[in-house]
């Protein structure tokens, strides 16, 4: 928890610095200079008032976290443009008569955030092919996580994404946590679980908890509890796995783990990979669904074949994509890696927790074809 306090205070300090920096840069525009006639106090008031006013409006419109993202991106854009135009002025041997760097910074900032909005609010399909030396029957897995229903789409938007998944004719659908959030309404939760109940697969639909599914603010905040979510999922044929193993067909195991937040945030306990796999037939292909990619060493040592996770949102924001790995919170941020004989896949998720921009990745669902080696 200390780590997250450090991240929070770092973000707040960056925000304060960015607000001051952008306010100072706004004062350089010719229109501000003409209105203030060289009065530095009035100039600072206009620059600060403009930037803080816009920051406040974005906080009301999107939320405080997204306002932080916006101001930091504009500060980064301004730094880049100031540096580029300074170098150009040095090459040409004279300064620019007007503050063109400021206009370029606004365009660059808006472009980056606009692209981030598009990448977060649209969903792509990502495909992987996994081969194994084990005697297996080909299996098509549909994986999604972090739908956080209510952030970038409601239950109707979620239904459209489920239709896209169904169109790929998966044998099994695995939901790797954070299906709902604290801002998901009870109505949307029920409608979304009903949509899951309409999925047609040969091997079923499976769900493991993420750190947001039970809710951080209690059942009263969003209108339903974690237990009620489980009841609705099970009512619609979704199997909820909490440190449990299921046999899939004749050659696969699916191991669904409790989320790591049970230990890290709630003082509870989840079973180890050694315990979960000790009685399994190791000649069968073993799949693990684990919301957070945090236990790679133990998972690889246990001999499982494929581990599926989400949680990281693919790193979310450039250039901060790898922060989770740098600080030791995650073993991988996004994509596919192989450790020993174990394949690891981390998806960026269908949506977001609170941030409505993805500048370092895109929203997605994943199709994985597991095949025997030729």
Question: What is this structure, in a nutshell?
Answer:
By secondary structure, the chain is of the alpha/beta class.
Which structural class fits the helix and strand makeup? alpha/beta
Strand content: 15-25%
Mean pLDDT: 93
Indicate how many domains the architecture comprises. Answer: 2
Distance between the termini: 47 Å
Query: Can you tell me the overall shape?
Result: elongated
* CATH level-4 homologous superfamily of the largest domain: Metallo-dependent phosphatases
CATH architecture of the largest domain: 4-Layer Sandwich
CATH class of the largest domain: Alpha Beta
Helix run count: 13
Number of strands: 12
Report helical residue fraction. Answer: 40-55%
Describe the structure.
With 374 residues, this protein is of the alpha/beta class. The chain has two domains: 2-119, no CATH class; 124-372, Purple Acid Phosphatase, chain A, domain 2 (4-Layer Sandwich). It has 13 helices and twelve strands. The chain has a six-stranded mixed β-sheet with strand order 1-12-2-3-4-5. Strands 6-7-8-9-11-10 form a six-stranded mixed β-sheet. Helix 1 packs across helix 3 and helix 2 (30-36) packs across helix 3 (40-61). The longest helix is centred in the first third of the chain and has 29 residues, at 64-92. The protein is elongated, with a radius of gyration of 24 Å. The model has no long low-confidence stretch (mean pLDDT 93).
Give the helix/strand layout.
Elements: H1 2-26, H2 30-36, H3 40-61, H4 64-92, H5 100-121, E1 123-132, E2 139-144, H6 155-166, E3 172-175, H7 186-196, E4 205-207, H8 219-222, H9 226-235, E5 238-240, E6 244-248, E7 252-256, H10 261-264, H11 273-277, E8 285-289, H12 296-302, E9 306-309, H13 323-326, E10 335-339, E11 342-346, E12 363-372
Parallel strand pairs: 1-12, 2-3, 3-4, 4-5, 7-8, 8-9, 9-11
Antiparallel strand pairs: 2-12, 6-7, 10-11
Helix pairs in contact: 1-3, 1-4, 2-3, 3-4, 4-5, 6-7
């Amino acid at each position: 928890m200390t780590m997250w306090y450090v991240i929070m205070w770092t973000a707040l300090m960056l925000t304060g610095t960015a607000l001051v920096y952008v306010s100072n840069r706004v004062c350089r525009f010719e229109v501000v200079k003409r209105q203030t006639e060289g009065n530095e106090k009035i100039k600072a008031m206009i620059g600060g008032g403009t930037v803080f006013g816009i920051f406040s409006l974005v906080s009301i419109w999107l939320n405080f976290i997204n306002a932080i993202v916006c101001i930091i991106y504009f500060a980064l854009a301004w730094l880049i443009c100031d540096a580029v135009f300074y170098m150009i002025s040095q090459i040409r041997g004279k300064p620019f008569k007007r503050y063109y760097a400021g206009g370029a910074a606004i365009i660059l900032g808006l472009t980056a955030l606009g692209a981030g909005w598009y990448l977060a609010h649209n969903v792509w399909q990502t495909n992987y092919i996994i081969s194994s030396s084990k005697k297996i029957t080909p299996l098509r897995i549909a994986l999604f996580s972090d739908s956080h229903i209510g952030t970038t789409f409601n239950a109707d938007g979620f239904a459209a994404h489920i239709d896209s998944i169904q169109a790929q004719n998966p044998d099994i659908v695995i939901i790797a946590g954070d299906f709902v959030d604290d801002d998901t309404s009870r109505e949307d939760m029920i409608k979304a679980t009903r949509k899951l109940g309409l999925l047609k697969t040969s091997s079923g639909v499976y769900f493991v908890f993420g750190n947001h599914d039970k809710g951080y603010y209690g059942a009263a905040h969003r209108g339903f509890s974690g237990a009620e979510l489980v009841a609705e999922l099970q009512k619609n044929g979704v199997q909820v796995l909490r440190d449990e193993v299921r046999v899939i067909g004749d050659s696969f195991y699916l191991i669904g783990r409790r989320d790591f937040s049970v230990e890290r945030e709630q003082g509870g306990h989840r079973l180890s990979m050694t315990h979960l796999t000790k009685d399994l037939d190791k000649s069968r292909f073993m799949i693990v669904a684990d919301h957070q990619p945090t236990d790679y060493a133990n998972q690889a040592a246990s001999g499982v074949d494929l581990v599926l996770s989400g949680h990281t949102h693919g790193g979310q924001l450039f250039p901060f994509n790898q922060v989770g790995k740098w600080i030791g919170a995650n073993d991988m941020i996004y994509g596919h890696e192989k450790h020993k004989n174990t394949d690891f896949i981390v998806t960026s998720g269908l949506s977001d927790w609170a941030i409505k921009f993805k500048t370092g990745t895109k929203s997605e669902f994943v199709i994985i074809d597991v095949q025997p080696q030729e």
